[in-house]
Amino acid sequence: MIAKKRLDDDLGLNDLMEDFFGLNIRGLKSIFFLFVRPRVYMRAAVRADWAGRYTPSLRLWVSLMAVLYFFQFFWAGETSGTVLLLEQQFADRGDVLPAGTSAADLAKAAANWQFTLQPFFAFGFMFIAATLWRGWGQATGFTLRERLLFAVAVPSLVVSLPTVLLFGLVSAANYVTYGIYFILSVFAMNWLTAYRSLPRAMPMRGRAWRSGATALVIGIAMSFANILAQSIATLIVLGGG
């Protein structure tokens, strides 16, 4: 007797991961190579099909950002450093609060709005930065520049995931200090990834400054996204949105 084939016989864990985060086993392999052998991954970026082995860097970046900002909503607890810092900022500014609301209410709402808007602004500024940045030491077209810059930023996003969870435990008094360490660690990871991605034939000094400049470009893009998201979130809550 022939067993009846189940409807989901062809579905596996690989498909479930794709459903959740747009990542599959190939995506995890791509992230692994960006940590261990980033130059190999970057060489595949020149190929239209990524050599048939790797997940495109933009897809990796977007998937990781979705996970990162999902966890960032945990920052917005009433006693988290993020909300307490925003609450203090509202108090210092002396804004006229909408009727029936407190500074704590506004801070919580502003944090939620910021974490909702920031991923979209981050993608936009990163896309613009990748379009403009040409410090790869070789001729690069529009698509390749996008692929390379987003690829450099992937490992730092992975490292950021556990770090982000700790933000919820940081007091308002230590929030800025912790934030500075966080920014420096992200910059260092982006510098290291860029340095190890550039051609070996390039002089060490050339690789060093180009990597530093690339990390700085990513940092500026993400900072602009953060500032714009926070500014618009503030305007929304003060306007009663």
Task: Please characterize this protein's 3D structure.
The structure is a single chain. By secondary structure, the chain is mainly α. It has one domain. It has helices at 13-21, 25-36, 38-44, 57-72, 81-93, 103-132, 142-167, 172-197, 204-238. The longest helix is centred in the last third of the chain and has 35 residues, at 204-238. The model has no long low-confidence stretch (mean pLDDT 84).
SSE order: HHHHHHHHH
Tally the helices: what do you get?
Answer: 9
Sheet-strand content, in percent, reads under 5%
Counting DSSP E segments of at least 2 residues, the number of strands comes to 0
Average pLDDT works out at 84
Helix content: over 70%
Question: Can you tell me the number of structural domains?
Answer: 1
List low-pLDDT spans: none
Structural class label: mainly alpha
Q: Any idea what the shape is?
A: elongated
Which radius of gyration do the C-alpha atoms yield?
A: 21 Å
Distance between the termini: 64 Å
Main β-sheet description:
none
Task: Lay out the secondary structure.
Elements: H1 13-21, H2 25-36, H3 38-44, H4 57-72, H5 81-93, H6 103-132, H7 142-167, H8 172-197, H9 204-238
Helix pairs in contact: 2-3, 3-8, 4-6, 4-7, 5-6, 5-8, 6-7, 6-9, 7-8, 8-9
